Amino acid sequence: DIQMTQFPSSVSASVGDRVTITCRASQDIKHWVTWYQQRPGKAPKVLIYAASILQSGVPSRFSGSGSGTDFTLTISTLQSEDSATYYCQQANSYPLTFGPGTKVDLK
Amino acid sequence: EVQLEESGGGLVQPGGSLRLSCVVSGFTFSNSFMSWVRQAPGKGPEWVAGIFISGTTADYADSVKGRFTISRDNSKNTLYLQMNSLRAEDTALYFCVPYSTSSGWLDPWGQGTLVTVSS
């Protein structure tokens, strides 16, 4: 199975800050990464798919990059509503696997 | 509007069984790869099982292989998860989620059904 790791596990930032989350796969997964945002008490929501494609309706301050084993999710200008936990998920092969998550808190 | 309505969760003793159901509407269920994903309290999502369009091919996470069985009835737009030999670590909110094989995303997600395994 492909293992997904994420770092940092948590980050505290101020409104307007740039936040970068990294996800690493245990083997080459090409561009097959999806990023989700999960707010407390809510189901996960797709932000980015195929490593860098913004899901329809998602604000443009979110962006994704990477290929192979290393991927990043960037929030260019953090907003208060971005306080959430972010997960990466590999879609290269079954079983699909998720990273452990990065919690983004506002200072 | 896409709707996914999971049901069948509840409290069960270790070693017991449950059958989850998910009735879907608003998209072509018979053309969709479907998954069950669970999320334990305070933990991240875990993909549990997936089933291809035909219903004859399925895949499972190692943690449930041999204990859980995913199935579908395309005539009823319904997805199932038969869970046997339940363990405390199976306690979670279970979601049925369509999976886009062309884009790699699991979306949309319903409200889930809660399974609690405890004596």
Keywords:
heterodimer, A: 107 residues, mainly beta, 7-stranded mixed β-sheet, 4-stranded antiparallel β-sheet, B: 119 residues, 6-stranded mixed β-sheet, 10 strands
Describe the structure.
- The complex is a heterodimer of chains A (107) and B (119).
- With 107 residues, chain A is an all-beta fold.
- Chain A has strands at residues 4-7, 10-13, 19-25, 33-38, 45-49, 53-54, 62-67, 70-75, 84-90, 97-98, 102-106.
- In chain A, strands 2, 4, 5, 6, 9, 10 and 11 form a 7-stranded mixed β-sheet that branches.
- Chain B contains no helices and 10 strands.
- Chain B is an all-beta fold and 119 residues long.
- The relative contact order of chain B is 0.32.
- Chain B starts with a strand and ends with a strand.
- Chain B has strands at 3-7, 10-12, 18-25, 33-39, 45-51, 58-60, 68-73, 78-83, 92-99, 113-117.
- Chain B has a 6-stranded mixed β-sheet with strand order 2-10-9-4-5-6, with no helix packed on it. Chain B has a 4-stranded antiparallel β-sheet with strand order 1-3-8-7, with no helix packed on it.
- Chain B is globular, with a radius of gyration of 13 Å.
- In chain B, strand 4 and strand 5 (45-51) form a beta hairpin.
- The model of chain B has no long low-confidence stretch (mean pLDDT 96).
- The interface between A and B is medium-sized, with 25 and 23 residues.
Itemize the secondary structure elements and their pairings:
The complex is a heterodimer of chains A (107) and B (119).
Chain A: E1 4-7, E2 10-13, E3 19-25, E4 33-38, E5 45-49, E6 53-54, E7 62-67, E8 70-75, E9 84-90, E10 97-98, E11 102-106
Parallel strand pairs in A: 2-11
Antiparallel strand pairs in A: 1-3, 3-8, 4-5, 4-9, 5-6, 7-8, 9-10, 9-11
Chain B: E1 3-7, E2 10-12, E3 18-25, E4 33-39, E5 45-51, E6 58-60, E7 68-73, E8 78-83, E9 92-99, E10 113-117
Parallel strand pairs in B: 2-10
Antiparallel strand pairs in B: 1-3, 3-8, 4-5, 4-9, 5-6, 7-8, 9-10
